[in-house]
Amino acid sequence: MIGQTISHYKILDKLGEGGMGVVYKAEDTKLDRMVALKFLPSHLATSEQDKARFIQEAKAASALNHPNVCTIHDIQEHDDQMFIVMEFVDGQTLRQKKDSMSFKQAVDIGIQVADGLAAAHEKGIVHRDIKPENIMIRKDGIAQIMDFGLAKLRASGSKITRLTKEGSTVGTAGYMSPEQVQGQDADHRSDIFSLGVLLYELLTGQLPFKGVHETALAYEIVNVDAPPMSSLKSEIDPNLDAIVLECLEKDPRERTQSTAQISLDLKRYRRESSKLKMSRITAARPVFQPSESYSTEAIPRVQSSKGLSKLPWIAAVLFFVGMATFAAMYFVRPTINTTLVRSSLLPPEESSYSGFKGGGQLALSPDGLKLAFVAKDSSGKNRLWVRSLNSLLALPLPGTEGASFPFWSPDNRFIGFFAAAKLKKIEATGGPPLTICDAPDGRGATWNRNGVIVCAPTWNAGLFQVPATGGVPAAITKLDTNRREQTHRWPYFLPDGKHVLYFSRSSGGGTESEADAIYVSSLDGKVNNRLFSASSNVAYASGYILFIRQSVVMAQSFDISSLAVMGEASPIAEQVSYSIGYNRGSFTVSDNGVFVYQTGATITGTLLEWFDLTGKKLNTIGERAVFGGGQLSRDENKLAISLFDPQTRNRDIWIYDLKRDVRTRFTFDQGVEDYPVWSPDGSRIIFCSDKRGHLDIYQKAVNGEGGDELLFESTFDKFPTDWSSDGRWLLYYTVGHPKTQSDVWVLPLVGDRKSIPAVQTEFEELDGQFSPDGKWISYISNESGRYEVYVRPFSESGGSPLLQSGIRAGKWQVSTTGVISSANIVPARWRRDGKALYYFSEDQKIMMAEVNTLNSSFEVGAVTPLFETQSKGVEWVTAIRSDGQRFLTVSSLDQTSSPLTLVLNWDEELKKK
């Protein structure tokens, strides 16, 4: 094939071949760069299984964007032969390079490979064939992991096609894990074993297992422990030996549980083995001081991490005396100690506790020994951390970027959280996050001893229960329209595991409405009792319900046998941070007398901010508010967006005149009015309103004449999303259908106004958008197991829809790495010329996909990440300029400088009353 030009790739040389492909060096004549093309071997081209496996390799690797993973550009087919276009790596394989490497270089390569695998494991991808041949070392010393041909995409709660023949093994002899050798399922810990073999070989020059033939080698891998590396090379440090041997444990449960941890261990070894002579206590100070500083009443509180790092050694000695006293009093106590103890916990170094998504981002384990919290690191990203309260160390959990509202499993092993429109869980010791179910805009969850999770998967619905192992959520509470309930959220299991406390918000009243209340419900739906008025998240411990009232944490005595409150509530903490929009305070409590809270100002809203396509912040619109869904007018001079008023508890639509910087109210009814959509001429706005007990579709003139006109009513909630450029059609989606879940519909705005289903399957379809010429619609669907952007034809000439005549034409998937589908978020929008789609990816990046719609065909071109949003405080994108040059975002106000306050035996004062 050398010398041929395939598509726009001129093949220059053959680089190599293996069982799953032949690789050529080629010139990308379109972009003037060198690439590598990997072709499926011709003798395998007729196998659908191998084609599927080849496509799986491309999908797996293309989901990764990391300097230590080879970049995948595209996948194409030529003369019935499929090929992957990937980054051309100018260098040598680790097999070719390893004998000339120094000891220090070997450790550095091990760190890079661990970092690359950690990125893959965060995406749920297992490589399953880590070996020197699959690691390329570039000329600049950067290691890159190649060949995800044996990768297995791991997903919770969805069917995975096994692409390995039954009874066969995958991997390469000598580097396979015991579970691979035995033909068992292999998760990310299999890669950890293979990485251990690789490290062992790099550091000693020998493989840890040396069977003379494949059967003998397999026996050693499964049954024989590897000899310590120091027995082969006496100069190898025992600490390094321990790191590698822990990777080589036969039982996956006894291995190091994450490659991110291996990277941290190797970096720590490299640091300690240098000539800096740092002690372990000194090495721990950057993590603990100011990471999590404990101070007794006798030690002055430190208000900034910079000041803490400059304390003299005498303060450090006092600190450890205090910590020893703390441990003796609480964690290692031969007799019950009922002394009330208070202390302060500072965030990790160069990080801050996060109020991202409504505050309250902390959770104590049930045994009171660990604290899970969300912190913003030095790059501006929010992620989940875990700190043992009797330890000096807090550890970040890889793969939890964008996490919110953490909660614990009753056995203290797992942490649940919301991220990327999913409810997920992760082991507290680390590992890949596992998806439990979809949660478009989560508002809290709780976990009982029977493996049931009760969650609020979105902001405007009741509570649902789902198995902790994953599955489809089932409703246990429903909003009461007679009470004008807007949301049920912040569930909390009582000790019996059958009853759940939760918060119900209703419209009408003040900031803390009398209509708002704490309820107790049961899993079987037989109990749903109002307990008392409050506007807060809720917890139960030591016979008390804890909740927020006017920034004060209150404790209300509660009899769990009769499910009744007793007496009056008493204050236990003041000036606690509270988010009005989310009705959530920053506090958490364990089952055994540990209480943690954060002081700070009440969080009153978010900001509207413009960013350009490079991620540079341009300007802010108006004042802070609690924003909802919004859309720009066609001339882009005005913005219609919904705002939640914490005083009236209503959500109304307001219009911003962007040229004059003036805001005027557009709707005035009680309840929810949201999802505004502009008419093409800018004279009318269509929106949804719950004034009849469910979200129906209305329209109203922008000048206010004529009042609200009901366009369409049904029992399902409806969310308008786009108005065709000819003014004839409205796209909206419904939610709540028992069989088809969420569906995209077309409402004719002329004639009989009889709705037509545009996309209706057993999966969820959301957020339909017309292309500028009206011939196509984009939408979001989770048919692949996660939300992605798809495109379907709408009409042949921008006129009557094809679906009206019963034609169901093809569809095309635009995104490949997931999108966020959540309330108010703009998942995908067309550019004005119809040649690009912009979308908000699952890893919170603004992406641009080039598209070609000439000759009534649709083709997806290059997909380019524009900028990452989380580090900029962006919660969601609410509008995109039609030229794709500006993005209007809703950004959080992260008032998180205050340390946490830790209280032991918090209920002792209450017992004296």
In round numbers, the mean pLDDT is 82
Overall 3D geometry?
globular
Calculate Rg over CA atoms.
Answer: 29 Å
Low-confidence stretches: 150-170, 275-329, 331-336, 508-512
Estimated helix fraction? 10-25%
CATH topology of the largest domain: Methylamine Dehydrogenase, Chain H
The biggest sheet, with number of strands, parallel, antiparallel or mixed sense and barrel status, is:
7 strands, antiparallel
Structural class: mainly beta
Strands of the biggest beta sheet: in what spatial order? 43-42-41-40-39-61-60
- The assigned CATH architecture of the largest domain is 7 Propeller
Portion of residues in beta strands equals 35-45%
Query: How many helices does DSSP assign?
Result: 12
Name of the top-level CATH class of the largest domain: Mainly Beta
CATH superfamily of the largest domain: YVTN repeat-like/Quinoprotein amine dehydrogenase
C-alpha termini separation: 87 Å
- Number-wise, the strands total 62
Task: Describe it.
This protein is mainly beta. The protein folds into 4 domains: 5-87, 2-Layer Sandwich (Phosphorylase Kinase, domain 1); 96-273, Transferase(Phosphotransferase) domain 1 (Transferase(Phosphotransferase), domain 1), CATH 1.10.510; 283-603 and 896-911, YVTN repeat-like/Quinoprotein amine dehydrogenase (Methylamine Dehydrogenase, Chain H, 7 Propeller), CATH 2.130.10.10; 606-892, 6 Propeller (Neuraminidase), CATH 2.120.10.30. It is built from 12 helices and 62 strands. Strands 43-42-41-40-39-61-60 form a 7-stranded antiparallel β-sheet, with no helix packed on it. Strands 1-2-3-4-6-5 form a 6-stranded antiparallel β-sheet, with helices on one face. Strands 13, 14, 15, 16 and 17 form a 5-stranded antiparallel β-sheet that branches. The termini are far apart. 47% of the residues are buried.
